[in-house]
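User: Show me sequence and structure for the first protein, then do the same for the second.

Assistant: Starting with the first protein.
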Amino acid sequence: MPIQLLPISLANQIAAGEVIERPASVVKELVENCLDAGASQITIDIDQGGRRRIRVRDNGGGIPRDELALALSRHATSKISSLSDLEAIQSLGFRGEALASISSVSRLTLTSKTAEQEQAWQAWVEGRDMQAELAPASHPQGTTVDVQDLFFNTPARRKFLRTDKTEFSHIDEVLRRIALARFDVRFQLLHNDKIVRQYAAVQTPEQYIRRVGQVCGNNFTDEVIAIDEQSGPVRLWGWVAPAHACRHQADVQYFYVNGRMMRDRLLGHAVRQAYGDSLGEDRTPTFVLYLELPAQDVDVNVHPAKHEVRFHQARQIHDFVLAGVRQAVATQKSQSNAEATSGSQHGYISSNEALAQQVRELQPQHRDIFPTRTTVSPSAVADYANFATPTRAPSEDSASVETTKSDSKVLTIIQQRFALVENKSLALLNLQQVQHHYLQHQLSQQAKIGLAGQPLLIPVKLTDPDIVTALKSVDTKELALLGIRIECSKQSVTVLDVPSALRQTDIASSMRTLVSKRNSQQELIAWLAHHQVQTNYSMAQAEHWLQYVRELNDCPASFWLAVTLPSLPEALR
């Protein structure tokens, strides 16, 4: 067969195969066009799950008469005109394929009126060369696209459609996603002439949660954690569910990048990783999140259906999302633990607050044993500073000996990181010190055969001359024993693997520190261990670490802080 140009109708059908998967795909493309036209009210009317009819009407700016026929042509758009426009997309649509593709596999009628025109006009396509016919029509300002008999001329595609109920459920989900993207627009969805969904427009952030509840259910909004983090021009805001309230299925996972719904693996990984071990294998992250950043920093032209994006600073975006969600989840978890602990003590709330205050008064001089971690909330760092290990060890007649007996018990948690332990006397067990001791021991054992490296989700390229020179000066075998794997080029080093303790740190800073500490294994191990120490603990975890202390042959005195509280209720003595 000789090389020849494809007929226009066939080329459009091929394009439709990329863009139009099912009726829901048509709805998505048409509603996005409505939003780009500035509509504040959109009505979607569906018959027989969309196979019979899809009609979308808006009150947007409309299409001038002279541009109606052009609107049905391939690669015709009003949204971009130059390469610079493409590199900074602000609109949802931009390729100009939607209407041409839809009209090639259906019977499409386009009716529109602008504010300047006295008369509305209608366009439809017939014939193999896709020539549009125009006629006057009656229509208010805005546009209506009427799509009938979808895939009537492509039987192979039509037979893959599911039941009307299934196809409509996909349309419903598309509208749910769009409704969460545009709180300021009123949406109405009908199926077989019956109103199924109505989303009223809301204007203030305080009202947004109402629509979120409509879309995601009150079970989500009742326990939701609000997020609003900003770093320069990048902002992450929205809502996530606490770990215990996350759903068993991934049906409430909405992530938007500059108003565009995404199914991006990088972003999904960041959110999942933010929950850490607190999320069981039977649950999945539940969230509605919005990422805003300069349009030129993200490429939306990497997927035919625009479901994926590519970030120019992918690593930084991943870590920004990870840190934002992690901080919100950790803060909520700390509050929940505090409430649960207080409730379990039956009226000892005021006593515990008194204890916390007296500990501060008894130990006026403190020091931080762990450097501040960038992923820890400022409040957690401040709390830890107030409860850090005392500079002097407790005396021999303190509670450190008595509380290691098997009948000692944890009464409560103070500031989420100290366990109030009682036997014959009271003492505070520094849970961070205990965990750090355990982690040091584990890492020391692993270091005898070499630390295990874990691959970074996105390799990090280092170009700072000092770091590059320092890493190149270390033998690759020695780096491998530290769990580090790198690739070197003339002026840079790309870090591929790091020890698990460093995966969530600033890699450039961590590499500099690691190289400086590599000649002192004890110092290096202590530094690595601190990155895995928690910032808050539950009762169950406190009891676990108390048992660990009981089993130690030589219990460090720094684990304990003696407390004398004559004012405590008798039940707590």
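Switching to the second protein now.
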Amino acid sequence: MTHPAKLAATAALILLAGCRVGPKYTTPATPAPPAFKESAPAAYANTPDGTWQPAAPQDAMLKGKWWEVFHEPELNALEDGLNIDNQNIAQYFQNFMAARAQVREARAAYYPTVSVAPSYQRTRTPGTLRNSVSTTSGTSTGTGTGGTGSTGTTTSTTATSGSTATVMSLPFDVSWEPDLWGKVRNTVREYQYATQVSAAELENERLTEQASLAEFYFELRGQDALQDVLNKTIEADKKSLELTRALVETGIDSPEAVAEAEVTLRNAEETGIGVATNRAIYEHAIATLIGKPASSFSLPVRMLTADAPPIPLGLPSQLLQRRPDIAAAERTMAQANALIGVEKAAYYPTLSLTGSGGNESSTISKLFSAPAFFWSLGSTASETIFDAGLRRATVAQYTATYNADVAAYKQTVLTAFQQTEDYIATVRILSQQIAKQQEAVAAAQRYLNIAQARYETGLDPYLDVITAQNTLLSDQQTLVTLHVSEMTAAVQLVQALGGGWDTTQLPAAGAVNTPGAAAQVSNTP
């Protein structure tokens, strides 16, 4: 081949190597409203002063340790332990590491495969074999008295002695399929996107576990607060029972009032005992989340005193970058798009280049000499000319999978908007309920004070006191329940907003196999 012809062939190969079939990926457009409806000023027209209000977007942004907005040091310590010892997070982290390894596996197809198969063989032929050799003598012809000519054949048999042969070989084989149509590149991209999906799923699982821990923590503290209410009620009922007995002894009241006071006390004691069940369940759940046996973990009793903090909402469009489940859905689309390119490459021919070479000799001293060297080169091109529509059906399958992933992505975005609006409304409405319930508790306390005073002076029967006590207890229990619901709804709102995460924390597609990639996924075990 002439020099210009070689250059032309090289240029053609370079151009072919730059080809990549398959659709170009673009993120589908997803319309986002300009603001959250439930956070609009009109929604807070009837909100009492001093109750929960969302922070304006410019006030702050949720950070990595989003739970610190609740200003609960004990919760902060538990969350830090969860990020290290939670086994569900550890499982998702190992899935992420496996996805990174798959990228390295796919990238290996860019390069030739080289193998070596050294061998040593020593053989000996047996000495019991015999060779038969036939020899034909000359031929003479005449008309004399002696008659016609004659031909002579002589057969001899010789024995062979055994022989020994040695063959040492050091062959190398090389094979390579150039990535003419981008099959390898699309495969690498597919696994890179799969790694990003795994990283987003890891962060989504981490956020789920963190939110569950915060919810269980506030539920447990709510049980402590409820227990405190019941303990105070029991003490008040005991005093009422003692007072009733004293009044009976003086003849002011009847034994029926004593029985009523005792029934009220026993009911309050039974309810107080039952609170311990829920507290134990929440405590056990917290132990499991932070990777500790429930039998060896306990939290001291402490009242729920914190109020729901203002949550910085930001803009609806920011959900597309802040929620890891949306990032996972979007990267799944990219992965499916790359897989279409992998399958479309099957329409084009494949080229395989092979080569082998090495040394072979019967003695070690000559194994590496020039005469012992051997080599061979070859190439094979293959193209499927009939497959009964297999390739077309395969591409159609993965195209449909991509379209399904697009629908799943759009549904995930819509669900994110719905959840955020739900929890904004929930926190806002609960704050209004709490304000009214606090007024109800204050009124019930005044009612009880009046009823007790009138009973002690003999103006009203003890039944009025019981009614006032039950009203106050019910209102106090409702207030505690609303407070816990507000705190857990605030946690769920933070989770709906994506916590303190954003898509910049995803490992870069081209760097998911670098040693520092794990550091890009925050708080890895």
